[in-house]
Amino acid sequence: MTITLNLKPQRNALLRGFDNEFHGLLEVKHTQQGQQNSPRKSLNLSIVLDRSGSMAGQPLFEAKQAAIMMVNKMRPSDQISVVAYDDTANLIVPSTPCSNKQDIITAIQNIHEGNLTNLHGGWIMGAEQVATKKNVKSINRVLLLSDGNANVGLTDVSELKNQCSRLAETNITTSTYGLGHSFNEELMVNIAGAGLGHSYYGQTSDDLMDPFNEEFETLLNTVATDLQVISESSNNVDLELMNNYNVVENNPNQLRFKMPDLAENGEAWALFKIKINLEHVRNQRLEVLRCNVSFRNNDGELINKGPAKIILDAVNQNAFSQISEDEKVRLRITEINVARFQDRAREAARVGDWALTEFFIREARREAKGNEWLNSVIDRLEVYAKDRQRENFSKEALYSSDKMNKRLVSDDELNMNYSIDLESSKNAYLRRKVERGKRFS
Amino acid sequence: MKLLNENKKIEVNIKEFIVLCEEWLNTFLIGKKGFIPNERLIRGYVSEGILPKPERKGKESFYGYKHLIYFLVCRDLFSESWPLAKINEYFKNAIFEELELNFLNKYNQQALNDSLEVIGELKKSSQNKIQKQKNKETNNNFTKSLMLRSYQNSQQSIKEFGSDLNNVFKDEFTTFTLASWLSVAIKTKKLSEIDADLAYRISNAIKSALLDTNLDENTLMYKEVKQTSDLDLKNQQLERENFTLRKDKSLLENKIKYNEHETHLKDLEIQRMENLIKAKEENLMAQLDERTALYEKQIQTLEIRNQEERKIIETDMNKKMEEINLNYQMEMQDQKSIIKQYEIKLLELEKELKTKK
User: Which residue of chain A is at minimal alpha-carbon distance from B241?
Assistant: First the structure.
């Protein structure tokens, strides 16, 4: 197993006599060498289920089925705990090795609906269970499911986000699952982002199993956790991170941020916007950017990789125009731009300005050009916009944009065609879905 | 009891490290009494790989919590007669966190779990935040001040400020807060009498009261309220338009920037294509000239060759024609002589025939 670092510019030169603004792409890639699989990280999970009144019936049944599926897939040495919350949080299964699966499943099946939604109470109880069995060699994660707004206990979004972030610093991460049309998507996406986990949602309870599967495959195939990037630029270079990763430190010449966990055969990436004024583009070669990456491998060891550098020569216009644009960098720029247009369209839809929403959708489509997958994503959003389905539009746009910012990519995406069959053959966490809230089909 | 893991953030030089080691060896009663570690021993452990290398900062080396744990575990095992080579091998295969946990458990030192610590802090801060949230809600809810308002002034005192009532009444009200700006207060006692029909009639009365412009005392106030609310609405609308315009502006600015960049790149591309076309044209013209000259030369040589060949062919033909003519004439002469012979023979034969007859 090898993890490689690659940093490349949009064009392999600087344009002399002009202000230069271009992008750089950092790729952290895992490649499997040979047949031998690296040892898997053990899991230390807490499944936190919403059992408020609105979950009664099919939603609670499907949520329990998803939890049972997770339990069935876990190894006997993995740790599991289950919490259910309504007004208060109840510990259904205290943290225990997943050896006696039947007892755990029976306990999950006995969860019944209650009243309100004390999301914070449930989350913190789950986190406490994970903390008691925390280990550097395991993936320590809270899986939080909700179908509504937090309305009991701590409900302030920014405070919940801060708390998830603080816990993530101690190596306990949080993934969230939103269900239906009434949950607060900003809360769920933000706490998963701050908690260094993943955010998923399902429009119906039928769509819920897919995200749990995706999470489980990610957990099973994780090869590096706690990825942290330190990017440094010289005084004359303005640097901006385009992805919405958690920035730990943002000094004028140093940017430190966290990336999502890396899973087998996946590639984590970060896109930078780089600006250099014309007076600094001289004849000598210029080191524009350097990146170092640290992560924990499956043995819990801290590994450092790098530095990867972008060093460019300044050339005249004629020479510059003959240097072609890197295809992969262009693809990522397109994706980030489409994600940003989705965010703007969502903001406009939230205030009911559908004309502006449609304008941003058109802009996103123009940006997507011949990319079949991005166009299919925009098609679905367009349907919600035309039908004026504000909640659906808002959720789909937010989750889709967040995923585009943070997703792991596979190495066959340079082809602009999109094939369901090809995507199905990939690991669930590498699949490009057309609609985040629906099952992959 | 002193806790070993309170030293988690230490960063000390070798002399301070030795003091620390000695202190903890004595605390846990590890090894022989009176044993004092020295610099040579510590450096020896580092060179053998039992202790990790200290962190160098300038000229000095610094030791931390990890070094302390490894040293204490090593001395503990050594006191149990483990040879150093075995200890070294054991350390190489063990995870530090496990070593630390086992050691702390052995000496009844509770391992600090940073996550549990953080969760404890989060719980505390959450409780404070929830309390503050509740207090804020209470302060904001002005209907609370209406609720349970009681009039306990004496009959006299209310007359002094010109009250239109003869007595003081004490009532309890229940408020229904429908929005942060809308509350309805109803006598608590009356509440049990309200059925669906009465509720409907009350809602109609409230609607009429709100919309009635002829209310004497409140007309002005209503107008003002309406004006304020209209202004609020307009303000909101303007804010929204402002927001949209700002978004549009920033979008257009981005688009302009992007277009400028695109135009610049396209200009470059056009210039490059023009140069390429020009260069190609020139190249083609030069090639054409060259080829034309070459063809002309070739045509000339071909023509010369043609003329020469034609001449040769003509002379050959003439020669051949002459030869053929000669041959023909000779053959003709031969034939003629043969014919003559035949004629002679024929005459002879005719003569013979005549004689025979």
Answer: A353
> Which residues in chain B are closer than 8 Å to A171, comparing Cβ atoms?
115
Quote the radius of gyration of chain B (alpha carbons, Å): 61
pLDDT in tens, chain B (357 residues): 567 877 877 889 999 999 999 888 888 888 887 888 999 999 999 998 899 999 888 888 899 998 999 999 999 999 888 899 889 888 877 777 778 877 887 776 655 577 888 898 888 888 888 877 777 666 655 444 444 343 334 455 655 666 556 666 667 788 888 887 888 888 777 777 787 777 877 887 887 777 776 555 445 555 666 677 678 778 877 887 887 788 778 788 878 887 888 888 888 889 889 999 999 999 999 999 999 999 999 999 999 999 999 999 999 999 999 999 999 999 999 999 999 999 999 999 999 999 998
- As a whole number of angstroms, the distance between CA A236 and CA A288 comes to 9
Best probe of the B interface among A23, A44, A191, A321, by most B CBs < 10 A, is A321
Q: Which residues of A touch B113 (CB under 8 A)?
A: 131-132, 134
ipTM: 0.80
CA A410 to chain B, closest CA, distance in angstroms equals 29
Instruction: Compute CA A123 distance to the chain's CA centroid, rounded to the nearest angstrom.
Output: 19
Q: Using a CB–CB cutoff of 8 Å, tell me whether A134 touches chain B.
A: yes
Amino acid identity at B267: D
Chain B residues close to A363, C-beta within 8 Å: 251
Tell whether A14 lies on the interface with B, counting CB pairs under 8 A.
no
Q: Which amino acid is at B124?
A: K
* Domains of chain A: residue spans and CATH: 2-37+223-321 (2.60.40.740), 42-220 (3.40.50.410), 327-430 (no CATH)
Instruction: Enter the tokens of residue A261.
Output: 């966990």
CA distance B92 to chain A (A): 13
Residue A15 has φ and ψ, to the nearest 5°, of: -95, 115
Residues 263-302 of B with CB under 8 A from A: 264-265, 268-269, 271-272, 275
Is B134 part of the contact surface with chain A (CB cutoff 8 Å)? no
Neighboring chain B residues of A353 at a CB cutoff of 8 Å: 240, 244
Buried b (16+ CB within 10 A) or exposed e, A85-121: bbeebbbbbebeebeeeeebbeebeebebbebbbbbb
Please give the model's pTM, rounded to 2 decimal places: 0.62
Which structure tokens are listed for A35? 């047949």
Neighbouring CB atoms inside 10 A of B350's CB total 10
**Token couple for A2:** 């090898």
Using CA atoms, how far apart are residues B85 and B48, in angstroms rounded to an integer? 9
Q: Which residues of B touch A159 (CB under 8 A)?
A: 126, 129
Phi and psi, residue A434, nearest 5°: -85, -30
